[in-house]
Amino acid sequence: MHIIRQYLLSLITAGSLLLSCPLQAQQLPALQPDPPKDWYALDPKTDGYMGISLKQAYQFLQGKQSKPVIVAIIDSGIDTLQQDIQGVLWVNPVKDKDFPGDVHGWNFLGGPGRRCDFNETSEEVRQYFKLKDKYLNPIASRDSNKREYAFWLQVKTEYDATVAKAKTELPPLNQVLNALVETSGFIRHELGLKDNQTFSRVDLEKIVAKNDTLLQVKNLWLLAFSQDVSTSTNVKVIREMSEYVTKLNNDISPDLDARKRIIGDDPDKLHDQFYGNNQLKFEDSSHGTEVAGLIGAKRGNGFGIDGIADNVQLMIIKAVPVGDEYDKDEANAIRFAVDHGARIINMSFGKKVSPHKEWLDSAFQYAAAHNVLLVQASGNENLDLDKQLEYPNDHFLDGSAGGSDNVLNVGASGLKADTSLATDFSNFGKENVDLFAPGVKITSIDMDAETTTDDGTSFSSPIVAGVAALIMEYYPGLNVRQVKQAIMQSVVPLRGLMVYKPGTHDLVDFSSLSKAGGIVNAYLALDNASKMVAAGK
Fold first, then answer.
1. I need a labelling partner for 84 at 20 to 30 A (CA). Which of 155, 199, 273, 396 fits?
2. 392: nearest Cα among 449, 465, 324, 484
């Protein structure tokens, strides 16, 4: 679930103005100091950051023995050569006739010739073009089945909103992106850098503007860096914007034959044929690499970051493109993970419509029946999920209510216990979001031996998955219901702390935004687990 930070829309507006307005009218946002790289692991009382008390958790575990836990990551793939996860990747111990060549997982977006369908459009766009010839005809609409027609109405509403948004954002965003691409060489020249070298905000601040043009270019880049950490590079900024531009273009002018051309399967048939390949690294795999690092990057090796869990095997399943994932791939990815021994599945993805929700319902229930925990990101649209659900979810078509014993839905929290503790992008919901976890300025590993810092519930979810893995490592006798209970009870409800409701400046009680009312705590979760074992529960 990729996030385009909320400042991007302001950058579109402010950047466009910056390219045309007089210098005296330019106002740049105040730059914020960087938090500690591992702030999300720190302790609220001793360190002043609203982290998960990971140091205290490991102190609690001293002298205890652990058992390895397989954690599946359904995401955009991974850089399997990243130094910080060597020895941590799951290796399939058997020769799998159904997934030939599988080593560390599977790519459900893969096709023959090591190809991959990693640039897709939104689900509502795919479904609009699939159904429009039938339902744009009002006579046909009257004769259709009620369930499909209701789905069409949902698709049409979402499609209209998605395309309108893309058409509004794309022209000014292209203007700013082109300006950044064109001026990056100008900045490198001023800094005496080679063409293949990057620059950061720290480098930019060293430039003394000798003329109005240089000042304008410097200010544009300062604006681009304004909401990121000081070590963020020009390459990262351009890559994120380019990826978002690709998504917007795919929504306006979708390549609806890409799946058939690259993979060759029918996404409307769950078991039509074998499909996919075992290639896990492609140019879009940064997101999955970051998620994997948070859960299980090697601890104490002096490289990259320290993952949350210290004895995991990471099973990598590529099923999330730039754009929306397919229901078929999600369902098959969950079943692949369960069938190959995963105890936890991290799912940092989501979308607005689900044409084959029954497949996902069945997969969720399959995971529950096999004692597997599903940890999913709540999403980054500042939506109240009690009023508007996103997919997948555990509100099953057979009428079962939400709140499954094996599902944790995670929102994103901020750095400090102030009005911005609930991030402005996070989805929320007293009934349908279970708890929050750190989700801004989260530093993890990236492809090609790099580290990067990002925002999103995509990174809150693996933090919770990492805590769950710690519990399962050291208390392997607990079932999935008990593990979820230990995590939920680790949350101290922050009643009385008034925060901005995501996406607004309306003050609400932080405890009203999720079921548990606060932020996951690794130390307290482990303490809860140990008490369950001692009590024989």
1. 199
2. 324
